[in-house]
Amino acid sequence: MKLILNEEQNYLKETALGFVSEKTPVSHLRHLRDSDDQLCWDKDIWSEMVKLGWSGILIPEEYGGSNFGLTGMSVILQECGKTLTPSPLFASGVLGATALTKFGSEEQKQKYLSKIASGELTTALAIDENSHHNPNICELKAIKDGSQYVLSGKKIFVVDGASADIIIVVARTSGEDDDVSGLSLFLVGSDNPNLKKVKLDMADSRNYANITFDNVSVDENMILGDIDMGLEPINEILDVARIALSAEMLGSCEKAFEITIEYLKERKQFGVPIGSFQALQHRAAEMFCEIELTKSAVMAAMQGAEENSNDLQRLSSLAKSIVGETSHLVSNEAVQMHGGIGVTDEYDIGFYLKRVRVAETILGNSTFHQERYANLTGF
Amino acid sequence: MSDLENFRVEVKDWLDKNCPSTMRTGAPTDTPIDEVWGGRKAVYKNPDSKLWLDRMGEKGWTMPTVPREYGGGGLNKEEVKILNEEMFAIGARAPLLSFGIWMLAPVLLEYGNEAQKKEHLPKIIRGEIRWCQGYSEPGSGSDLASLATKAEDMGDHFLVNGQKVWTSYADKADWIFALVRTGPKEPKHSGISFLLIDMENPGVSTKPITLISGKSPFCETFFDNVEVPKENLVGELNAGWTIAKKLLQHERKFISNFGLAAGMGSKKDVVSLAKKHFGEDEGKISNPIFRSKVIDHKMKEHAFGLTLQRAADEGGKASAVASMFKYYGTEHNKRRHELMVAASGVNGLAWDGNEFDDSEKNLTRAWLRTKGNSIEGGTSEVQLNVISKRVLELPSG
């Protein structure tokens, strides 16, 4: 496993950086927030991303994608993270595309994958039921009724849940509420009349919803993968997404750090740039080291996914956990080193703080992934 | 067969005939007695280790990339890779540990004149001369450039007076490469020269230093009217600081790699110690508070290992990266030993006697010894300065 990007991946990364710098600087997110945009992302921007082929990077060519691999997708999200660019790329292009590619029937793939690639529809994964990510806890039940399944229960904090056309929902089809077996995936149209979405207003101004399933009837051909497939295959989807999200968070950390270093060079107090003070220099150098370690962990996870590493679960948890910790360090220090303007809404640095903290809670925070890594390693 | 395939066959064949069986024990063990450092004063407990050194030295394979004319192996990168692979395959031990190889030789290759390269490189490569490093002084630690050991121009030779400290293995070394002040009136960085000194010269003496961890390889080295030939000046007069900085990079890389490699290969793992002393609960360290510290530490270690790998994959550029590895590697090694001592409780603080086993007593000393890792070769604070100035380009105070 080589921990470097190849030429195509580097090219993709540069393209993405060019795109987000020009089209979606942080002012883009600020504008969406200030105009109280209910979508929390911009349809025109999304169309342009689709045209660049980003939505189909994890989708096989026969279904309209490019099958370019997780590293390619992750480096794009890393660049999106630099300007906090909101889009359905993560929920649809990563979670939806991975779930359907891995577990979809031929019919489901034909029906959905090409539309995800073309941007015609977007997806969301409804998995969490509590304030902390814990995927084996699932009280939402799907009960068989003839050729239908009836879903009832509640999912919370569904990423892009307020805008997605198709909700991929984890439901219990057998076993107790905290069993790792007895879990199944269902595809549910978000226009189902018995499905109630409440948009969440989170600190990062992105798109989330709580979704209540009130006797939602779903045809059995809308089961994604095997019935009672359990947590392990679901984790395959989650690990891909955790790695991609780690890359996005890494990008945000890198940029927040870069902005802060620039500020240390510009801002003068006592007649000198504050970056000349050793008290700040050493903290900046320590951040540099932590970010370097984070880059390596994220790189190893991306490349591990490309090569179907049998250590992927551990690499995924390592990446998500380390990037979570680095996010705390960098976002806190970035605000502190900016002094007074760091805590004003007018200045962008606070947006980074808010985004990385919400992102950290998606699909498991650092503590969750430390515990998982430790259990997998035998600590 | 390609040239490289032929080369592999040759190497295999040669190793088969020339690597003594007692030298095929894999990576060096914990016992320093087994280490081979060469030099005029070397004592070989196992005659095979001398044989192995002589044979490898003759081939120039202790420094395989150095040109043949200077006694090296004259191999290219691919050939070195093959040599390493074949040596690893039979568990061949390093024939020679040497500051000459790690620090001085790269500097001689870059800054030495033809005569110096011809004179010193073959002896380094064959392990005939053991070198030590004369950098720090009692009054010049982090502010190394303030060093005061002076070398006066006496016409046909330099007259050296002063004191060096932290000279590792000075009592066992034959020659010392030293930084000396040759321009007392110049600004401090511009009055330093890089001088090679034979320690058999009258006026050179050494005295070992005892550390908090007990006996150590460190010494003080004294120069009392030592006459050094002019030809032993490396590079230009008063241009030694550039060479010194270059050499420090080699040293930092060596220290950080060494620390990590030693840690990762060690059987004294913090996890097994924690399980032994706290007990296990369904395969988990029973003490949850300690377990969470271990987890955090081991994950950082994993990420640091990946970072070393990534730097190698990227082609290992940037000198400032050496500072990062030195800083992080040594600080991490200190934390690792703190956790091992904490996991061992009373048994982690044993000093001597028969009530504790050797691994416990060694742990105590190893833990104390790590305190020096983040001081020697440039303190952690100095490394952070280097990162902030060279990588982050923050303004000087």
Layout of helices and strands, plus pairs?
The complex is a heterodimer of chains A (379) and B (397).
Chain A: H1 7-23, H2 26-34, H3 43-51, H4 70-82, H5 89-103, H6 106-117, E1 123-126, E2 141-145, E3 148-159, E4 166-172, E5 183-189, E6 195-200, E7 208-219, E8 223-224, H7 231-266, E9 268-269, E10 272-273, H8 278-306, H9 312-338, H10 349-361, H11 366-377
Parallel strand pairs in A: 1-4
Antiparallel strand pairs in A: 2-3, 3-7, 4-5, 5-8, 6-7, 9-10
Chain B: H1 3-18, H2 47-59, H3 77-89, H4 99-111, H5 114-125, E1 131-134, E2 150-153, E3 157-165, E4 175-181, E5 192-198, E6 204-208, E7 219-229, E8 233-234, H6 240-265, H7 270-278, E9 280-281, E10 284-285, H8 288-313, H9 319-344, H10 358-373, H11 380-391
Parallel strand pairs in B: 1-4
Antiparallel strand pairs in B: 2-3, 3-7, 4-5, 5-8, 6-7, 9-10
Outline the structure in words.
The complex is a heterodimer of chains A (379) and B (397). Chain A is 51% helix and 16% strand. Chain A is an alpha+beta fold. A four-stranded mixed β-sheet of chain A has the order 1-4-5-8, covered by helices on one side. In chain A, a hairpin with a 7-residue loop joins strand 6 (195-200) and strand 7 (208-219). The longest helix of chain A is centred in the middle third of the chain and has 36 residues, at 231-266. The mean pLDDT of chain A is 97. Chain B is an alpha+beta fold and 397 residues long. Chain B folds into three domains: 3-95, Orthogonal Bundle (Butyryl-Coa Dehydrogenase, subunit A, domain 1); 131-238, Butyryl-CoA Dehydrogenase, subunit A, domain 2 (Beta Barrel), CATH 2.40.110; 243-391, Up-down Bundle (Butyryl-CoA Dehydrogenase, subunit A, domain 3), CATH 1.20.140. Chain B is built from eleven helices and ten strands. Chain B has helices at 3-18, 47-59, 77-89, 99-111, 114-125, 240-265, 270-278, 288-313, 319-344, 358-373, 380-391; strands at residues 131-134, 150-153, 157-165, 175-181, 192-198, 204-208, 219-229, 233-234, 280-281, 284-285. Chain B is globular.
